[in-house]
Design goal:
Blueprint: E1 2-9, H1 15-28, E2 32-39, H2 50-67, E3 73-82, H3 86-98, E4 103-108, H4 116-121, E5 124-126, H5 135-153
Parallel strand pairs: 1-2, 1-4, 3-4, 3-5
Length: 160
């Protein structure tokens, strides 16, 4: 069974985000072994300098790297990434498992994104949209799309 670790910078705030994530975590249990790692977002001043921002992203990058599963394929969610349909994402995940991949890490950065070195390290840079979403919503969307993709691959009826 595929092991998936969703690595998120930032904590879920409101209960409705946590409830939505819990629902998809429950559904995903039929398709993969899912772990969610929540990392602390670095605090920045109201108007950080480029240096302060870069240093914060590097500290977050180190925390992300410490959570990566050994030998895992890495998917970084970032606005400049590739957009895929749900079917294409399902095919991508299926191809990984057919080729022997059993571990996957999906990364969601904090409000300032991901450090460039984390994006470069990713096997796939994936964009959900050119629009900007709150990171809490991005987590729900990532879990839903993982569920949808794995359900498609299993021949389920969730995707219409």
């Amino acid at each position: 069974m595929l092991s998936v670790r969703l690595i998120c910078v930032g904590k879920l705030g409101e209960r409705f985000w946590a409830d939505a994530c819990a629902e998809y975590r429950k559904r995903l249990g039929a398709y993969c072994k899912l772990e969610v790692a929540e990392l602390s977002e670095q605090r920045l001043p109201q108007s950080p300098s480029e240096g302060e921002l870069a240093a914060a992203l590097e500290r977050e990058a180190a925390a992300i790297e410490a959570q990566l599963l050994p030998g895992a394929k890495v998917i970084a969610l970032c606005v400049e990434g590739k957009t895929l349909s749900s079917e294409a994402f399902s095919a991508y995940l299926s191809q990984l498992t057919v080729s022997g991949v059993s571990r996957l890490c999906v990364l969601i950065g904090g409000s300032c994104g991901l450090a460039p070195r984390i994006k470069q390290r990713a096997d796939l840079r994936l964009s959900m949209s050119p629009m900007t979403f709150p990171h809490h919503l991005a987590r729900v969307m990532a879990l839903e799309q993982l569920y949808r993709a794995l359900n498609i691959a299993a021949g389920g009826k969730y995707h219409k």
